[in-house]
Amino acid sequence: MPLANLAPNHGIWELRLGERAALDGVYHLEVYDKSAMTQSGPFPLRFPNGLYALQWFDSLVLAGSRTPVDDREALRDLVEGFIEARGSSEVWGLICNALFHSDHQGPFLESPWWYGSAPPVVDQHPLTSAVDPGAREFCQLFTDLTSAQVVGIRRQIGDDDFDDGEMALEWWVDGEFVDRMPPHLGHGRQFKISNFDLLYLDSLVSLLVKDLAFPDVAEWLLTTPPDREVHMGETSIGFREMLGRLINELNVDLSDLDADPVGVSSALWLSGKVGLPAMRLLDNLVSLLLAQASDRDRASGSRWQETDEEGESHRSSAVADEFEFEIDEFYELLYGPRADHLFAFHYVRAKRARGATNWQVREHAWRFDGQWDEDFPDSDGDWRWRAENERLAQIPDTVAEALRERGIDEEFVLAWDVSESIRIEGVYDHIVTDLFDRPIDIPVGIGEWAAIDHLLDLSIEEVEEMSASAAEAARNVARQSMQWATEDTPENGLRNLRQFVFEGTAMRASVVFRALIELLIWMHRSGVPGDAGRRSLDGMSVVPSDPSLFTGVERLVSFVAALVALTDDVVVINVAATDSHPEVYVQLCREDDGALTLEAVSNEFLDGTLTPDQVSTLLSMGWQEPIDSAMPNFHRFVSARETAPGEVADFLVRTLIQVYGTHPRDRHTFAPFHLTSSLLSGTFGAELAANPDMNPARRARLMYGIRFPDDLAPVPHSD
C-alpha cells in the first residue's frame, strides 16, 4: 500500500518524461527525490510534438544532466519509453505543486508526494471545493486589492420565494448579518471576492474586526472541506513558508494559541509528522495572525512613556526589559570526553542583566524522537544518549577526571555533566534538526563545521588550523563518497567536496557544510560500509531492543550492504542451525533492469515448520507468500528505484532476526564466495575486513561461518 502525504527534501531531484502510448501528444512527468525516498506524479502534460516537449524539458533541468544526451536518441526514447535528467527542487517543487493543484480529469493523486510501487489515487480531487457552485447559501470574503485587508463578509442566500436567478445578499455588520451594504464598501473600491464555507465564519470575522489581512497563499483553505485532514506535503511552498515565518517571528508556545489545548500545534503540522483538519488549520492560522498583530501593537505602544496617577512618566515593562537585559538564543551540539560522535542537540534561550557576567537560562529544549522536549531524553529510550552512557561506562577514569575538573561532586545527568558543547551557526538550525531526526551517527567534526561562520571562504588547510576534527570529517566523507559513488550519489555535493578536499579549492563554508550533510545522508541511506544503514525498505528500524545486539547488527548490515552494492547477480545469506532455530537463509537476485527479487526460506526448504506468528510477521513486513514451484519461497520484488544497498541489507537482516530468530553471533556464510573473500581481505575497507588478531586457523575457517561482530576488525575508536 503506498504511503501518501510525504515531504521531499531540498536539493537535486531525478526527473522522467515519456509519451503515453495510448494518447498522442500527452506525456507523463515523474519526479523522484531519492534522498527522501519519495516521488511526485505521474502528471499528464500536453505538447504539440516531441521536439517541443524536449525543448521544454531541457530548459528546466540541470545543464548536461539529460540522458540520452543526443537529441535524436532522446526523441526516440521519449516516444518508446522515457528520458531522464536532474533538476533543482527550487524549480521543480513549484512545478509539482502547480501540477497537483491543476484542473484535469481524474483519477487524481491523493497527495503530491508519495512512496510505494503504485501512486495513491482518488476519484475526486483531494482539494475539491467545499462550496457547491449550485448551493443556495454560502459566504464570501472581501479583501482589499491594495492592502489585502479583510474589509467585508457577505452571505448569499436563496429562498423559495425568489426566482432561480435571484438571491438575497446580507452583510456582516457589528456581530450580525444585515440586508444593507456597509458604506465603506462603496465608492469604487476594488476587492477580491473569495467563497468560503459558513463554518469558517467565526475565524474570519476575527480578521474583519481587527482590520487584518488574509494571506493570498492561504486562500485555498477557504474552499477546502472543514473536516478534511490536510498534510503539510500537499500544500504550497508559499503557504508553508508563510506559516513558518509567523511561528519564528512569534517565538512562543504555540499550544497556547490552539483552539484545543490538547491537540497538535501548527508547528507540529509544519514538521510534516501529522495532519490537521482544514478548520483547525485555519483557526490556528488566524490565531497566529492575531497574535502577530497583538505583538506589533505592544511593540508600538512600548515606545511611548506611560503616566501614573500622579502624572509622572515611566518606562513600560517592555521598554525596561529591553534596556536592562540582554537576550541570547542559540543551538548547541554536545559530545563527551574522547568521543567520536555527537549525542545531543540542545536549544537555549538565556537572559542576563546588562553589564553582568552570568546568564540565566529562561527556556531550553532537547531534540529527540523527532520533536523538542523540555525534559532530558530518557537514556533508555533515546539511542544516542544510551550509546553515550554505555561509552562513558567504559572509561571511568576519564569521566572521574572530567567531573573533578568541573567541580561536580554529585551526579545530575552524567552525559551532560561531562560533555563539551559546540554552538552552531543560526542559519544551520533546520539542517541540523533534520540530521538529528535521522538514525545516523554524526561525527563531532560535522558539529565543528556547523560552528564555522557560514559566510567564510576558506580552504581545507585553513579549516585544519581552525578545527582538526572538522577537516578530518570532510576528508572521511569525501573518501567514502568517492569510493562508493553510484548514479544516486548527490552530484553537486560530491563535486564540491572533491574540489575542496582533494583539489585545494577554497569555498564558502556553507557550501561545504551542505555538501557534507547531503553526502552523509546519502551514505546512510545507501548503506555505505561503515554506516549503520539502520533504516529498512518499509521504514522500520532494525535497532534491536537488546543493546548487546547493537554492534553485531550494525556490522552485519554493513557487510550485507557491501555485497548488495557490489553484486551484479545473486547474494545468499545462510545462517547455521542453533538450538533456537534451524538452518535458514535469505537471498536476492539482481535483474537486468537493476530491480531485485528478494527471497526468504519457506517450509519447503526448512528442517521444521514456520509458526503462524512467523508467517504473519513475514506478510506484515511486505513478503509475499510462496507460489507453488514457480516461486517456492516467500518473496518480494523491489524496483530499481528502491534498491539502496543499506535499506535492502537492513530488511534482509531484520527478517532473519525477527522472523527466524537468528543472532548476529550465529555463523553466517555468504555467496558469492569471491566477493566475501574480497571484503574479508580488506579490499573494500578495514571496517569490513577480518579481525587481524585472529589466529591463522580461525581465519581459514571464516568462509565456513562469520560471527558478527567478533570475527571482523574492531571499529577504530578514540577510547
Report the total helices: 22
How many runs of DSSP E, i.e. beta strands?
29
Q: What's the end-to-end separation, in Å?
A: 46 Å
Enumerate the strands of the largest sheet in spatial order, edge to edge or round the barrel: 1-7-4-3-2-5
Low-confidence stretches: 129-135, 160-165, 252-264, 301-323, 529-550
Radius of gyration using CA atoms only: 30 Å
β-strand amount: 15-25%
Largest sheet: 6 strands, antiparallel
What is the average of the pLDDT values?
A: 78
Instruction: State the share of residues found in helices, binned by percent.
Output: 25-40%
Structural class: alpha+beta
Shape label:
globular
Task: Summarize this structure briefly.
With 719 residues, this protein is α+β, with helices and mostly antiparallel strands. It contains 22 helices and 29 strands.
Provide an overview of this structure:
This protein has 719 residues and is an alpha+beta fold. It has 22 helices and 29 strands. The chain is globular and about 100 Å long. The strands form eight sheets. It has a six-stranded antiparallel sheet. A five-stranded antiparallel sheet has the order 12-11-10-9-13, covered by helices on one side. A five-stranded antiparallel sheet has the order 21-20-19-18-22.
Which features would summarize this protein structure in a list?
22 helices; globular; five-stranded antiparallel beta sheet; 34% helix
Summarize the topology.
Layout: E1 3-4, E2 12-19, E3 26-33, E4 38-46, H1 50-60, H2 71-80, E5 83-88, H3 89-101, E6 108-109, E7 113-115, E8 121-122, E9 137-144, E10 150-157, E11 168-173, E12 176-178, E13 191-196, H4 201-209, E14 229-231, H5 237-250, H6 266-270, E15 275-277, H7 278-301, E16 306-307, E17 313-314, H8 317-324, E18 325-335, E19 344-353, E20 360-368, E21 371-373, H9 383-393, H10 396-406, H11 414-417, E22 420-423, H12 429-436, H13 444-450, E23 457-458, H14 460-466, H15 468-483, H16 491-502, E24 507-508, H17 509-526, H18 550-566, E25 570-575, E26 584-590, E27 596-600, H19 612-620, E28 634-638, H20 645-658, E29 668-671, H21 673-681, H22 696-700
Antiparallel strand pairs: 1-7, 2-3, 2-5, 3-4, 4-7, 6-8, 9-10, 9-13, 10-11, 11-12, 14-15, 16-17, 18-19, 18-22, 19-20, 20-21, 23-24, 25-26, 25-29, 26-27, 27-28
